[in-house]
Amino acid sequence: MYLREASKKYRICPYEVIPFIGLNGPKPFERVYMSPALNGDDYTFIYEYMVTQFCIQFPLSSFECQMLTEMQTVPSQLHPNTWGFLQAFQIVCKYFSIKQTINKFMFFYQMKYGESIGWISLSPASSRLKLFSLYKNSFNAFKDAFFKVKARKTDLSRRILFNENYAPRFTLYWLIPTKFKSRTAHQLTAQEKLDIQFQIDFMISYDKPLPTKDLMDSVDVKEPDQYLKGE
């Protein structure tokens, strides 16, 4: 599939980024956990659901890159509901003009490891602080379709996956993830504590976890107010 067509169908990247990015289906022998051959082109794999359901686009946001780097996790290693939490958190922070930081997000969540080595999901750090609901209770066959995202061979194109020092913006290939627990109040800055208290107060006023799927659907029609006014 041509990238211009794929971009319209899957929204893999903004229209202006199309000249700088390559999108290919996997070869028959390739698996999502594989790394490139020696001296091969750099790339990362993503699952189809990540763009069809979660509207993930390249280049990834700074917050997404920081979270993936912190966990030593590639985009395809995260369970779908974890991507839902990440997207919902960014929507809420943008709506209320709150700075997105790893500390704030990981105050509410902790890492869980799947039975298959490498798989990562996040769960609420406390049963009393469930910030967002699950996007879905169950995901079936989401591992069946995946794509290879590559940066074309120009300096500007490489910024899709690499920073100005040519270091990866996030983990590109599967690793054994870093093990860490949720953040405690002692690890937060004064501003982070204020922002988190605001989020907790808002969650209490809402009286239930914010609906992840509804929040993400509302962004498509640019009407998140109905879920974030606290009414």
Explain the overall architecture.
The chain is an alpha+beta fold. The chain has one domain (3-228). 35% of the residues lie in helices and 11% in strands. The chain contains nine helices and five strands; from the N terminus they run αββααααβββαααα. Strands 1-5-2 form a three-stranded antiparallel sheet. Strands 3-4 form a two-stranded antiparallel ribbon. Helix 4 crosses helix 8. The longest helix is centred in the C-terminal third of the chain and has 17 residues, at 190-206. It is globular. The N and C termini lie far apart (45 Å). The relative contact order is 0.20.
Secondary-structure blueprint of this entry?
Layout: H1 3-10, E1 21-24, E2 43-47, H2 48-52, H3 62-71, H4 80-95, H5 102-108, E3 109-113, E4 120-124, E5 146-151, H6 155-158, H7 190-206, H8 212-220, H9 225-228
Antiparallel strand pairs: 1-5, 2-5, 3-4
Comma- or semicolon-separated keywords:
alpha+beta, two-stranded antiparallel ribbon
Percentage of β-strand residues: 5-15%
Task: Outline the low-pLDDT stretches.
Answer: none
Structural class: alpha+beta
As a whole number of angstroms, the C-alpha radius of gyration is 18 Å
Distinct helical segment count: 9
Major sheet description: 3 strands, antiparallel
Helicity level, as a percent range? 25-40%
Write out the strand line-up for the largest beta sheet, numbering strands in chain order. 1-5-2
Order of helices and strands: HEEHHHHEEEHHHH
Distance between the termini: 45 Å
Mean model confidence by pLDDT: 81
Number of strands: 5
Overall geometry: globular
Q: What is the number of domains?
A: 1
